[in-house]
Amino acid sequence: MELIFVTVSAPVGREIYVNGIYDDSRGQAPLTIILHPGTHVFEAVISVGPDRFVDFRGEVVDVEADARVAIALDPVVPREQV
Amino acid sequence: MRHPLLCAAFLLALAGIAGCAYPTRNEAIGSGGGHPYTWADPNPNSVGEALVIVTASGGGTRAAALSMAVLKTMDEVKLASGKSLADEIDILSSVSGGSVTAGYFAMTGVAGLPTLEANFIRKDGMTPLLLRGLNPVGLAVLSTPSVERIDLLIDYLDKQLFKDATFQSLVGRRPYLILNAADMVEGTPFPFTQNTMDLLCSDLTQMKLSTAVAASAAFPVALSPVTLKNYRPCAKRPPGWLDPALRTSWYLNPPRVAWARTADAYVKGEKKYVHLLDGGIADNLGVSEPFRLLTSDDVAPVLTDYIARGRIKKIIFVMINARSAKPSDLDKTQETPGPLAMLTASIGSSIDRASFGTAERLRNLLQTDFRGFANAAAAAGQKDAAANFRTVADNTQFIAVDFDSIKDPACRQRFHSIDTSWSLSGTEIDALKAMGEALLTESHYFPEALQMINGRPDRPFTTINEACALLPNPGG
């Protein structure tokens, strides 16, 4: 089993979620998230009442073991309900 | 009314046809309206951020009794908080016979164990199933699609234990229960979690515990599968992890991609129905889903992240294995085995051996990989994560409750030879209760686990030798 290290630099101060798991925030950007090799999606979400919307998103594709990658999430316009 | 008799006959026929529909075992999402059944954050708890996982294997009443004994013994380890180690179990994952105990324990806690013993473990479960199924009325009922052989077990479990309780009754309770069946077509584990049921757009809280336990214990051929309906396509989006997992190169993470491809078939609606059999076909130890929770980035809770961030500092993993290894007479003669012998041998040996690979991967993870993670994190400049992985690597105890650890070969063979059945003798049950306690507490790693959590036993425990004496040689 191996690890990769993804530094999410922006949006600063926003909670970051990985792979659509919105029950568990990974922490606030900027932060380094430790994952397993492969493709991963990173999102920031906002809640409007009971509804949840993604307003920032980024991804890393096929990152190999021990790699260190840095990304900044891009705005999602219009935001997407999830 | 022109033809009242014709009308009456037509209505009766309609009623008969309606009664011939296959049973619906699972409901669509949105039908319940309550909170989903999900994992509750383990941190903080009273054992210093320790994650406690127990897995219970298949093996009929043999497994149910052994698992019950282990849980009872864990309740007799007291902590400074006044709670017991059993109270601190975070995840309880099980298969087949182990699922009867796990399901009832999740529903009722330690207080329910005497009822489990009296109403199930000490009962002859085979005779009621056979009598109900083999009498003329039973046979006639079973010939209709609306009642299947698995309903004999579901109804018995409800009558004796679960009383039609659903997963709704577990919401907010600890431990987090994972009952494991196997997808008959895929040969893959099918854990009864909301993560899995989301793939079918189905609400786990509406499912009866007895149905999931029966699916986990649906021994091939003897019992019929539990068939779930796939409600996709539906309004609920596919889970967010599915797309990135499918786009991952297989070479980088084969287990992730393999599971994603199975999940995708569910989500696409290609599999309109999922036929579930005994979880032992895919994993008779019940360790595959806890292993996935400890290694996957695609499922909540993301335990690797909890460890990396220091939310979990210790792990106690108790793996209960009630594997049978009964000597066979087949290889004592040149006589060609008959069809029934071939069928039972191939099913049985597949179930008994299927878990070996996953158990070894789990053992490697707990005993080696976390140390490797620490080194990788350190090399990447992640000092805090490196320290946290190292802390867990130094504070993990893997305790295998396994007949294989009995040194005396004759005693070991006697326990391995206890039948896989829903009916055992009082002597066998007494011996299994004693041996479950002894195997846990005489484990090489048990004292270290106690020290890790400042636990103290409530009383002296039975020894393996004392447990052996309770199960005499047959005819001796």
- Provide the structure class of chain A: mainly beta
> Distance between termini of chain B?
78 Å
What's the helical proportion of residues of chain B?
Answer: 40-55%
Strand arrangement within the widest β-sheet of chain A reads 2-4-5-7
In total, how many domains does the architecture of chain A comprise? Answer: 1
Q: How many helices of chain A in DSSP terms?
A: 0
Low-confidence regions of chain B:
7-19
Mean pLDDT of chain A: 95
The chain pair forming the largest interface, with residue counts per chain, is:
A-B, 33 and 37 residues
- In what range is the share of β-strand residues of chain A? over 45%
Q: Give start-end ranges of low-pLDDT stretches of chain A.
A: none
How many individual β-strands of chain A? 7
Structural class per helix/strand content of chain B?
Answer: alpha/beta
Major sheet description of chain A: 4 strands, antiparallel
Shape of chain A: elongated
| Helix run count of chain B | 20
Question: What does the model show?
Answer:
The complex is a heterodimer of chains A (82) and B (476). Helices cover 0% and strands 59% of the residues of chain A. By secondary structure, chain A is mainly β. Chain A has one domain (1-59). In chain A, strand 4 and strand 5 form a beta hairpin. The radius of gyration of chain A is 13 Å and the shape is elongated. The relative contact order of chain A is 0.32. By secondary structure, chain B is α/β, with parallel strands linked by helices. Helices cover 46% and strands 12% of the residues of chain B. Chain B has 20 helices and twelve strands. In chain B, the strands form three sheets. In chain B, strands 2, 4, 5, 6, 8, 9, 10 and 11 form an eight-stranded mixed beta sheet that branches. Chain B has a two-stranded antiparallel ribbon with strand order 1-7. In chain B, a hairpin with a 5-residue loop joins strand 5 and strand 6. In chain B, helix 7 crosses helix 9 (209-216). Residues 7-19 of chain B have low confidence and may be disordered. At the A-B interface, strand 3, strand 4 and strand 5 of A face helix 10, helix 13 and helix 15 of B.
